[in-house]
Amino acid sequence: MVDHEPVTKAVVPAAGLGTRFLPATKATPKEMLPIVDKPAIQYVVEEAVGAGLNDVLLVTGRGKRPMEDHFDRAYELEEALRAKDDPERLAAVRESSELANVHYVRQGEPKGLGHAVHCARQHVGDEPFAVLLGDDLIDARDPLLKRMLEVRAEFGGSVVALMEVEPEQVSLYGCAAIEPTAEDDVVKVTNLVEKPVPGEAPSRWIIIGRYVCDPAVFDVLEKTPPGRGGEIQLTDALMTLAQRDRSQGGPVHGVLFRGRRYDTGNKLDYLRTVVQFAADRPDLAAEFLPWLREFVARQDAS
């Protein structure tokens, strides 16, 4: 069975305070921290657009105005670059404002990811939609979101992205209990546990920051009480939908992702991400990698 209701909208929750990166995030949104020379949030929007989702809603909060400015035109800067006859930088500046139809809604209170997603209800309406978390960057060479949209079209309901981790890491994430399907990279999700107690996780497959949600999730979120951490958890709502059939907004399937994922949620992983992206850049790698090797050798020798 093929679901003909296309997914056209992406929701990007971006209202977090970024406390792990203070003082840098005191006046700059965490999502605007650069990965080499482009803010992390732009990679996320580019991923949505690359999967065919040109309508992007950013769920923001106080102090997030720089994100809105980034995806807007900067006429004075463009004129200055045009006057300097600098077409390369002019194109780079204009790129973000021409990427997608970007919209904004405020999450008035920090009540969790589920609440942030529920804030998108008026914009999304009664349509399926994707959710992309800004802390996870997926390599553009690994079209995870496109695959998730294919799975949604085939099976209906909602789809989560799953990645296998070492047992000691499972308790840091939402974890899925899964059953195989006829497709190697697709499983049926039978249960979801947010940050399970070590040793009690149903599997080693964790939920990473990509979801395709059936619109039925909004009604479920409205009735979902605060869970772990006193926040409304999206995983709790998806757990409810996992018990339903297609006529009621279920089920939930998972795509087993074995590609390249970059975490920017803490300082150490952020630094790793910057180094990896720099090493993959043709315009930087030739000089950066020899310097990096020398630096590491000096550290090892000291």
From TrEMBL:
Catalytic reaction list: alpha-D-glucose 1-phosphate + UTP + H(+) = UDP-alpha-D-glucose + diphosphate
For the keyword Transferase, the answer is yes
Keywords, comma-separated and alphabetical: Nucleotidyltransferase, Transferase
Record's keyword annotation contains Nucleotidyltransferase: yes
- Nucleotidyl transferase domain sequence ranges: 9-272
Q: Which EC main class describes this enzyme? A: transferase
- What's the Enzyme Commission number for this chain? 2.7.7.9
Task: Check the record and name the NCBIfam families matching this protein.
Answer: galU
The UniProt similarity line reads: Belongs to the UDPGP type 2 family.
The name this protein carries in UniProt is UTP--glucose-1-phosphate uridylyltransferase
Biological source species: Actinoallomurus oryzae
